[in-house]
Amino acid sequence: MTKQEKVFQVLEATGLNWTVNKKELVSVDGLTTESYGIFRNDTDNWLGTVGKRYEPYQNHQLVSNMVDITNEVGLDVNRGGTLSDGKKIFLQASLPDDVVGNSGIKRWLTTTNSHDGTSAITLGYSNMVIACSNTFHAASKGSNRYRHTINADSNIQDNVKQIKMTLANEMKLIETFKAMQSTDIKDEAIDRTVRAMFSIGLDANQDDISTRKRNQVETFSNNLITEINTHGKTMWSLFNAVTRYTNHEQNFSSEDAKNNYLMNGGGFKLSNTAYAEIMKFVDANTEGILI
Known about the structure:
Blueprint: H1 3-14, E1 20-26, E2 32-40, E3 46-50, H2 59-72, E4 77-83, E5 88-100, E6 103-114, E7 121-129, E8 134-137, E9 145-146, H3 152-158, H4 162-181, H5 187-198, H6 211-231, H7 235-248, H8 255-263, H9 266-284
Antiparallel strand pairs: 1-2, 2-3, 4-5, 5-6, 6-7, 7-8, 7-9
Helix pairs in contact: 1-2, 4-7, 5-9, 6-7, 7-9
């Protein structure tokens, strides 16, 4: 199969075989503006408003570079799709499964792009704890983020070999999870993680906080008990309580809404904030594996 055929196959399989167009926005009476709209060419749906210097990055460009990247390391792009009706898209290539404690881990190399001007083009990694279906999308490092400029495609092509560094970071993330599993849970870590997530601690006077905050902390505490019963009294249980909370305690209207929340939205931010807080304690008890 040629590269062109492979790109077409991925575009068709993931529902990404469409392009976007950047159009100048004008007022109803014909006055020009400094804003531009991004529109899907297959549906004419408006996806977002951007500035003059913003350059659309087409789905076929992302797929083409992802094919090059995965070919470099013997992988195949086997998952992908749209988020928020095409405002964001993602592609994934499966990595070999791993195990942390008594939990299997599914892993993916993940690339994302936005057509609404809200985020950069990214290359990173995601994983799911099989036992509880908790998915974690790790925040991409700076070297794997590309702004929507006229040079975006050439920059990504020039940095295809960054995939090896990205994969090394992903392997380091698994080692970090294993370090969490081997580190005893600490009350201080729980309290500081709760503060990072909800801006209140476990010792907060219940009369001084809102019902919403109180319910959030109570729900998280219940998730932590569940994870400790599953994984033991370790920092790995604390981290899984975080991802259980972001994955399963929200009212999602659809799978699309859930994926967007976990990949780019509030769940992504909450999980990575808690991860950083937890790693302060894990790193203090290991040989400096914090990434």
